[in-house]
Specification:
2 domains; metal ion binding; lyase activity; 322 residues; 4-stranded mixed β-sheet; metal-binding; 5-stranded mixed β-sheet; 20% strand; single chain
């Protein structure tokens, strides 16, 4: 059965609403767990206020934050998925969904031309919204994920040398989190994504995906990287800063690391913080015409993390109904 563009647009529109209004359960539980252990009075107050804000937003069906960020999409296509209109049809459907959701939810129209500051009042423009593509073998569905991430601050990059090692990564993370907290460049606590390796642009992409497309409690399948994720999370929560930069211990809800093979002479590292709203939602469009919704993008599959030239035909964790 063909997955039609109208269904893709309808799903894109629906996840735009869900991402803007409904806080993901994994992140909500992570914040509530931080309230239980936070000792700073102001940090505790901020965390409690955010939970109350999320509850009010859900009840009133309004965006949980006045700044609805920069909506973007991540599309994962199954090899066996059949869809009408081609790839450009999917792009048009998602651009249309963005424009309609901007008016209806409503989302703040944040997208402007970088030089002339002109805009179309719909979050659509040149290279906007961004759409990133991924593929999955042996699957006949399409996953569409939207992420509403702030587009001003909350990211940094540094080219390290192999000799800097793990200690260099720790130093860069601490420098970044302290700067973010002191200068108000991020909304803490946040899911922190770290990209290590790849080319410079790939490094930035990996870090943002690690922050936005993995849920609280998820660990990298490499046990050494998983241990480093936990260590860096604890490190970030022991610099004396809590929610929104106040004194406390609630800086990092979770830390996720993604890696890519890189040039032998360097070790690029990027750090990204997903904002306090952690806005994401996913729709899976099945070959039979049904659509299911979830908040775990399930983006990083074994296929995406493959190291070799060949990929054996096998079932993956994604080849099931979400």
């Amino acid at each position: 059965m063909m997955i039609e563009n109208q269904a893709i647009e309808a799903a894109g529109y629906e996840i735009m609403k869900k991402a803007a209004i409904d806080i993901p359960e994994d992140y909500l539980q992570g914040i509530k767990g931080m309230i239980d252990v936070e000792s700073g009075d102001l940090s505790t107050f901020v965390l409690q206020s955010m939970v109350e804000n999320w509850e009010a937003a859900s009840e009133d069906r309004r965006p949980m934050c006045a700044d609805t960020g920069l909506p973007r999409y991540y599309v994962k296509l199954g090899d066996k998925a059949r869809f009408g209109g081609g790839f450009t049809g999917i792009e048009r459907a998602l651009r249309s969904a963005t424009a309609r959701a901007t008016q209806d939810v409503p989302l703040r129209p944040n997208r402007v031309h970088p030089l002339w500051r002109t805009e179309h009042n719909n979050n659509v423009g040149i290279n906007a919204p961004e759409i990133e593509w991924s593929f999955e073998p042996e699957a006949d569905w399409i996953d569409v994920t939207t992420v509403h991430k702030g587009g001003l601050f909350g990211s940094d990059y540094r080219m390290l040398f192999p000799g800097d090692g793990i200690d260099g990564i720790k130093r860069f993370l601490l420098d970044t989190l302290i700067a973010f907290g002191k200068r108000g460049l991020a909304c803490q606590p946040a899911i922190v994504g770290i990209g290590i390796g790849g080319s410079k642009d790939t490094c930035m992409v990996l870090g943002k995906q690690a922050a936005c497309l993995r849920v609280v409690g998820d660990r990298n399948p490499d046990p050494k990287i998983a241990a480093l994720e936990q260590e860096l999370k604890e490190l970030g929560n022991n610099i004396g800063m809590g929610a929104m930069g106040f004194v406390g211990s609630s800086m990092v809800v979770d830390c996720h690391i993604e890696v890519g093979y890189t040039h032998t002479g360097g070790m690029p590292v990027s750090v990204h913080t997903f904002c306090l709203s952690s806005r994401r939602a996913t729709a899976r469009l099945m070959a039979d015409g049904s659509v299911t919704y979830r908040t775990d993008p399930l983006w990083f599959t074994p296929y995406m993390r493959r190291e070799t030239v060949e990929w054996p035909s096998q079932d993956t964790s994604l080849n099931r109904s979400a």
